[in-house]
Amino acid sequence: MFIDYAKIKVQSGKGGDGCVSFRREKFVAKGGPDGGDGGRGGDVIAVGNENVNTLIAYRYKKLFKATKGQHGQGSNKTGGDSKDRYLEFPLGTEIYNITEDKHEKIGEITKHEQQLIIAKGGNGGRGNARFKSSTNKAPRYAKQGGNGEYFELELVLKLMAEVGLVGFPNAGKSTLLSKVSDAHPKIADYKFTTLAPSLGVVQVGDYNSFVMADIPGIIEGAHNGKGLGVQFLRHIQRTIILLFLIDMNSSDPFYEYQILKKELHQYDPYLDKKPHLIVLSKMDTIPEEDKEELLNILKNEFEIKLHEHIISISSISGENLNILKTQLFEMIKEINK
């Protein structure tokens, strides 16, 4: 099950208390202070794991605690430090502190084995041996260990892909992804077949590749939560390039493209300004005698009104798929420069 949002609570460990103790040895009537320090409490640490792709581990369990440090002991024995608590997150996870009505971003996990301390353990308290001085040779007090930190966190997963597929339901996004990559999304001839984003690695030649994400279909009003709404729009934000997929059988492909751009802009004003390609899909469903005339009409409409170029493809016949992959890779390479 794909889960891209969760709320959890984290509690780091309390530091161990310092010890009040005095030497008790034969022939030593009044031994000096020998109370040891307490150990450090455990941190709660977020760790990136490229093999994890969902937040489902945080859907049902809500509280994650580190243990406390051990107390100091006599004979200047320091208490043991507690083990840290590690929480594994998929790459692309953003972590927000929502304690006390805050909504503050702590950080994000973008690399494998990246570590981020999200709740720091308390320091160990100092034992009474630490407080001995020329004026106080027998201190009868020690310091308590520091308290751990408690936070309520919001976890938001945004998939990390170079290319994001954007289109209305049943535009052929899943079919395209399955043909150009190693992904196997569910495919059927009805709306909202895709209920979770899918990632696929697209191979370009022998040595080059990029990651493409199939985002569940957008409909008019999606930015307000209509249809699948904002549940998946967030995944488009991390992509480098948007690939708008328009069904050739649509009654008005030009209008569909304008709606998609509008929905993206209303969700995030920067989204519709990303580099993009417009692709007309399902060319295999158009009769051969009508293809050239229909394509010319649409190309002229996009170029004259919006100064946009379009590519026509068929995921079934493979028409222009290699051209599309190469063009996307060249765009990514140029942007990364």
Features:
6-stranded mixed sheet, alpha/beta, 337 residues, Rossmann fold, single chain, Spo0b-associated Gtp-binding Protein, Chain: A
CATH class of the largest domain: Alpha Beta
- How much strand? 15-25%
**What is the SS-derived class?**
alpha/beta
Under CATH, the topology of the largest domain can be stated as: Rossmann fold
Number of distinct beta strands: 14
* Total separate domains: 2
Average pLDDT: 86
Number of helices: 5
Radius of gyration: 29 Å
CATH superfamily of the largest domain: P-loop containing nucleotide triphosphate hydrolases
What strand line-up does the widest sheet have? 10-11-9-12-13-14
What does the largest sheet look like? 6 strands, mixed
The portion of residues assigned to helices is 10-25%
User: What is the H/E string?
Assistant: EEEEEEEEEHEEHEHEHEH
- Overall form: rod-shaped
Name given to the CATH architecture of the largest domain: 3-Layer(aba) Sandwich
The N- to C-terminal Cα distance equals 36 Å
Describe the protein.
This protein is an alpha/beta fold and 337 residues long. It has two domains: 5-157, GTP1/OBG domain (Spo0b-associated Gtp-binding Protein, Chain: A, Distorted Sandwich), CATH 2.70.210; 163-336, P-loop containing nucleotide triphosphate hydrolases (Rossmann fold, 3-Layer(aba) Sandwich). It has five helices and 14 strands. Mean pLDDT is 86; it is low at 185-194 and 225-229.
